[in-house]
Predict the structure.
Amino acid sequence: MSENPGMTRRQLLGIGGTLALTAATGLSTAAALSRRPAATGAELRSAIPLPPAFRTPLPLPPVLKPVSTSGGVDRYEVTQREVKMEILPGVRTPMWTYEGTFPGPTIEARRGRPITVTHRNELPVPTVVHLHGGRNTPTSDGYPADLVLPEGWPNPADGTSAMHQMADMSGTDGMSAMSGPSGMAGMRDPRAVVTRLTRDYTFATDQRSTMLWYHDHRMDFTAPAIWRGLAGLHFVRDDAEDALGLPAGAREVPLMIADRAFDADGKLKYPALDPSLRDRPGVREPYLAGVLGDVILVNGAPWPVHEVDAARYRLRILNASNARHYELEAVTDDGRRLDLVQIGADQGLLATPVTHRSLPIAPAERYDLIVDFTDVPVGGRVRIRNRLGSGRTRDVMAFRIARKAADDSRIPPVLARDMPSWHRSDAARVREFAFRAGRMHGRHGWLIGGRPFDPARTDVTVNLGDVEVWRLIADVHHPVHLHLVGFQVLSRGGRQPLAHDAGLKDTIALRPGESAEIITRFDGYRGRYLFHCHNAEHEDMGMMANLEIG
Ligand code: C2O
Ligand code: CU
Ligand code: CU
């Protein structure tokens, strides 16, 4: 066996049982937390020799050039296509890409200047593009049923082959978000807007400066699509941020961290029930809690190394993994831990910097960090390590200090003055949502409030402009993400938020057995949005809900 299933269903249910017992007997939180597993998911083992760490240079994703900047709008074009890429040295790996690269090309946007991205789908399956963390209209938010069909794919609305498949499926185990061909998403969702071959996504860019990311969001198939490479970075910048004097240019480095596993022939390994990703969603039994890889990629390179000056650097970090959580630290050759000075969270700059020794990051979370290499000797190395990993997944990447250099960057004590101040007493409503394993149409599923996702059902209706408090409760690790709005963490485990909860977030990492409260104002646009778990396998297996802003 080359695979190492980490958590079986029995173990999963076991955790649920433990939690139930905790609640019933009133065991202390500390006792419950001491049993907290480090990971949720099972690790795939690569079947190909893996390269040594810190040899492959860190790639920097290309910045996409607009095809036009006239009329006050920047226009971009992105073609989604399959290419063979060299991820492991000397090995060709077929990937699904934006513009032939992984990560996809970076989009650089300026606050207040709208952009339109025309995506063209030349992949063999439907796609959907979502700008994660973007404040955008519902029509450009990448709703999972708003498919862009490739050439030749039957239109769900014509009732051609997708209809037949649906009839077949309903004869066996009924119709569900889990069991049908993806074409059904459009059929069961009367509001879906399906296009053929291309779709324009328009982003107002009316939001705080930060690093967003775009990724596939196709109903039932998001996890394998991201795994195959459909993810890229998208920056929003503004004058206030530029004026801060933070490290910039070559001293600002985007880092997209993602784990993967490889087959003997160089293909990506993934335990899909239907490897063509056409009809049948889902993963094989040992991986229902999430798919972990044994290779850590940063910007698409395995355990890379990056040459730097002995100076301050700004690291823009995204965890683009499907299910893996990391706890990052920066360690010198002599075992010294460098400070991680956090200046921003998912939704932009913090009010003031927060200094960490290590920093947990869940799928879809981002951090904006300053790391100072000034005192590291030239020729020395700083490794970025993952305290939650074991064996080779303990390493992430390294920086090699190449030379002394002048540095006129600063970390101002006040970074942002535009932080919202929402108070519990402002809340029009308090809601509670449990994120738990459960049964869904006779199978294992992941549920919010006891229900699996149904695009045709409105789960939550909020009034535009209302402040609400949401209490989120988890059985295992669930990184919970809200579309459209940023939020603040009000409490965690009934106590003060943790240091890394600072700032405006769009994803909060709930740990096993944990509850947290978040507060936000639902403003921006009316319409249909989503909230969901960003463990991508959980998301595909039902852990998503509709949020109607009216
Ligand atoms: Cu990053 Cu709804 O997703
Ligand atoms: Cu999102
Ligand atoms: Cu989850």
User: Anything to note?
Assistant: The first helix runs from residue 9 to 25. Residues 130, 132, 481, 483 surround copper (II) ion (ligand 2) (CB under 6 Å). The first strand starts at residue 42 and ends at 43. The chain has three domains: 70-242, 249-404, 424-549.
